[in-house]
Design goal:
The chain is an alpha+beta fold. The protein contains 18 helices and 17 strands.
C-alpha cells in the first residue's frame, strides 16, 4: 500500500504572475494541457532524448508537439557499450585542478574545484548527458509523467549503495530536493537551481524505491534540471558537515581516498558500483583517479605536454592559441569545452546602482573588442549575452551587434551617451570610488573591467582580490557595489542559461535583482512545450534583460579542455557538462 511522504507535505509557492507576461515580453499563447498518455517501452541500451522537451544540446529541435508530453522512459542499462577499440580495464586517470576543494556540498555552491572533486563520487536522479544528446537513467532507472504533465513518477534502482554500505533509497532523494527547495538543514539558503525547482508542490514515497513529484505547472526543463551539476543526490543519514570537512560519502563510481592540500585528491574505483555497461561489464573501468593540484597554469600545461596529466583544467586560459601546437606535441590531442561569459553585476536597492541609467552607462562604456583582445586573445565572443552565440535559444550575432554598446564601430558615441546618462542620473563619475571584489582566479577580468570604467568614464575604482571562500561569502551576502566574475549555464536551455542568474529567488542572482514580470516570463518559458514559441519568449526576455542591465556581460570566454588519444570514450560539450566528469565509462589505452 502506498504511504504518504513521511515529511509533511512539501509545499513551495512558485512565483507565477502570468497577467504581466504579455506586457513584459509580448508573446506566447497559453499552453494547452498535454493529453498524450506515456507508454511503457522495452529496455534499450541507449535511450533517446526526450524530444518534446527540446533539451538536447547538440540535436536539432524536433517538430513541435505542444499537446504531448514525453513517453515513459524505458529501463535501459545505464551506459552504452563503448564504441571503437576493446576497452582496457585498470589504470589511474590524472587530471588537473588549480586549487584545493573548499567543501563537498555542491547543492549549496557551484565552484569548479568543488564540483570536479564531487562528481566522480556522486549520482543524480537522472543523468543529463548533453554532449550525447540524451537524458539517461541514473539513480532513477525509469520514469513516467501524468496526462496533464504535472505528476512525475520515478522508479529508483534497488542495488545502489552509499560508500558506507547503506542502501540508496527515495528518502535520500527527498532529503536532497528539500535541501535545495526549502533549505531544511539551514545549509543552502541560496542554492544555484532553487528557482528552477521551486514549483515542486509535493513529494511522495509510495515505497522505498518510488518517488512521486507533483508540480504546480507543466515544466519543459524539469527533467534536465534534475541532472544539473548542483543537484546531485546526497545521503540523508550522513551529516553534511562530513562533506564540508572533506569526508564525503557518495554512491558513485569512485570512492574518496585521500586529499593532500596543494598536492592531490585521489579516488579509488568503487567495487560495488551499481552500474554495468551494455555488455554486462562492471563499471568503472579505471582503477582510480588522481586530481593533481597545480596552481600555476604554465606548470599545468607543461604537465600535460609531458604526459603527467591526461585532462587539462577546464578554465585554463593558457590553452588559448595553443590548440595547433599542442596537437603537434601530443599527437591525437582532442579539444572540447564550452563558453562562459564574463560580467559585471550590481547590488540591487543600493544607490546609484538602483538607477537603470547608471547601469546602462556602464554597459555602453565597456569596449568589448578590447576585452576580447585582452582576455581571450581575440578568440572569445564580443556579441554575447546569457545564451551562447549560435544557440538555438538566444539572439543571433547580427541581432546583438545592432544593439547599443555592442558595435565596436560606434564605441565613442556609446561612451558619450554613457556620460550623458550619468549626468542625467546626477552622478559625478569622479565620486565613484570603490573596490570591486574579484575572485583570485578571475583577477584579469577585474583588472580589464576596472581599467575600462576608469578610462572611459573617469571612475576611481580599484580591485579587491579575494580567495574562493571569501568570495562565496560576498556572493551570498550581497556585500558589494559592483561584482566582477565569470559564469555560464550547464546546458543549452533557457532555463539553464537565464533562470539561475536573474530569477528573484535564484542563488546565482548575486545582486538580488527581482522583477515579477521577469519571473513570470521565466515561468512561461518553462511551461511552453512548443519550440518556436519557447524560443521567441527566450529571445524577447534576453532583450529585456539587456535593457535592464542587471548583468553587464563584457564578453564570451572560451573554456578549452585538452586530452590525448589514450583517453577513450571521453567527450564533452560544455565546461560543466556533468556526466563526462564522473569518468565511469572512460578507459586508458596502453
Amino acid at each position: 500500500m502506498a504511504s504518504k511522504l513521511r515529511y509533511p507535505g512539501l509545499v513551495i509557492t512558485a512565483i507565477i504572475i502570468t497577467a504581466l507576461v504579455v506586457a513584459a515580453c509580448g508573446g506566447g499563447d497559453p499552453t494547452p494541457a498535454p493529453t498524450a498518455r506515456p507508454q511503457t517501452q522495452q529496455p534499450t541500451a541507449t535511450p533517446a532524448p526526450t524530444a518534446t522537451l527540446e533539451t538536447a544540446a547538440t540535436a536539432e529541435p524536433a517538430p513541435a508537439r505542444p499537446t504531448a508530453m514525453p513517453a515513459a522512459t524505458p529501463k535501459p542499462v545505464p551506459t552504452a557499450t563503448p564504441a571503437g577499440p576493446q576497452i582496457v580495464r585498470g589504470g589511474t586517470l590524472n587530471f588537473w585542478m588549480t586549487r584545493d576543494p573548499s567543501n563537498m556540498d555542491i547543492n549549496r555552491q557551484r565552484s569548479s574545484a568543488n564540483w570536479m572533486s564531487v562528481l566522480p563520487q556522486m549520482n543524480w536522479l537522472v543523468e543529463n548527458f548533453q554532449i550525447r544528446g540524451q537524458i539517461n537513467p541514473d539513480l532513477a532507472e525509469q520514469w513516467s509523467v501524468s496526462d496533464d504533465g504535472k505528476v512525475w513518477t520515478f522508479n529508483l534502482v534497488k542495488n545502489a549503495k552509499w560508500h558506507d554500505g547503506e542502501t540508496v533509497n527515495v528518502d535520500d532523494v527527498i532529503w536532497t530536493l528539500r535541501r535545495i527547495t526549502e533549505n531544511i538543514d539551514g545549509k543552502v539558503p541560496n542554492p544555484p537551481y532553487k528557482g528552477s525547482l521551486e514549483f515542486i508542490t509535493n513529494l511522495e514515497r509510495p515505497d522505498d524505491f518510488t518517488l512521486v513529484v507533483t508540480l504546480d505547472r507543466v515544466s519543459a526543463s524539469f527533467l534536465p534540471i534534475l541532472g544539473a551539476i548542483g543537484n546531485v543526490i546526497y545521503p540523508e543519514h550522513v551529516p553534511i558537515s562530513e562533506f564540508e570537512q572533506k569526508r564525503p560519502v557518495g554512491s558513485g563510481p569512485f570512492v574518496w581516498d585521500d586529499w593532500k592540500s596543494g598536492d592531490a585528491v585521489t579516488f579509488t574505483a568503487n567495487p560495488n558500483y551499481f552500474k554495468k555497461d551494455a555488455a554486462g561489464r562492471q563499471l568503472p573501468y579505471l582503477d582510480g583517479i588522481k586530481i593533481l593540484i597545480i596552481a600555476e597554469a604554465t606548470l599545468g600545461l607543461a604537465a600535460y605536454r609531458t604526459g603527467k596529466i591526461d585532462i587539462t583544467f577546464p578554465f585554463a586560459s593558457i590553452l588559448k592559441g595553443q590548440t595547433g601546437k599542442l596537437a603537434e606535441e601530443v599527437p591525437g590531442t582532442s579539444f572540447g569545452g564550452g563558453e562562459a561569459w564574463d560580467y559585471l553585476t550590481f547590488r540591487s536597492g543600493k544607490a546609484p546602482w538602483d538607477d537603470p541609467n547608471v547601469r546602462k552607462a556602464i554597459h555602453l562604456a565597456i569596449d568589448r573588442q578590447f576585452v576580447n583582445d585582452a582576455l581571450e586573445l581575440g578568440e572569445g565572443s564580443i556579441y554575447r549575452f546569457l545564451s551562447p552565440p549560435g544557440s538555438k535559444w538566444g539572439l543571433t550575432l547580427d541581432e546583438i551587434r545592432a544593439l547599443p554598446g555592442y558595435n565596436p564601430d560606434t564605441k565613442q558615441a556609446d561612451i558619450a551617451e554613457a556620460k550623458r546618462l550619468l549626468d542625467a542620473a546626477g552622478v559625478n563619475p569622479s565620486d565613484i570610488k570603490l573596490s570591486i571584489p574579484v575572485r583570485d582566479i578571475y583577477q584579469i577580468i577585474g583588472e580589464v573591467s576596472i581599467a575600462q570604467l576608469n578610462e572611459a568614464l573617469g571612475f576611481g575604482v580599484k580591485i579587491n582580490l579575494m580567495d574562493s571562500a571569501t568570495t562565496v561569502d560576498v556572493q551570498f551576502n550581497g556585500s558589494f557595489d559592483i561584482y566582477a566574475s565569470r559564469n555560464g549555464g550547464f546546458m543549452d536551455d533557457p532555463i539553464s542559461n537565464i533562470d539561475p542568474f536573474v530569477r528573484s529567488t535564484s542563488g546565482l542572482n548575486y545582486g538580488r535583482w527581482g522583477d515579477p514580470q521577469v519571473d513570470a516570463v521565466l515561468d512561461e518559458i518553462d511551461a511552453e512545450l512548443d519550440f518556436a514559441k519557447r524560443r521567441q519568449l527566450s529571445r524577447d526576455l534576453e532583450l529585456r534583460l539587456i535593457d535592464l542591465a542587471w548583468y553587464v556581460v563584457i564578453g564570451g570566454s572560451k573554456t578549452p579542455i585538452a586530452w590525448p588519444a589514450r583517453v577513450k570514450n571521453f567527450d564533452i560539450g560544455g565546461a560543466q557538462d556533468g556526466p563526462p566528469w564522473r569518468f565511469e565509462d572512460i578507459w586508458l589505452e596502453n
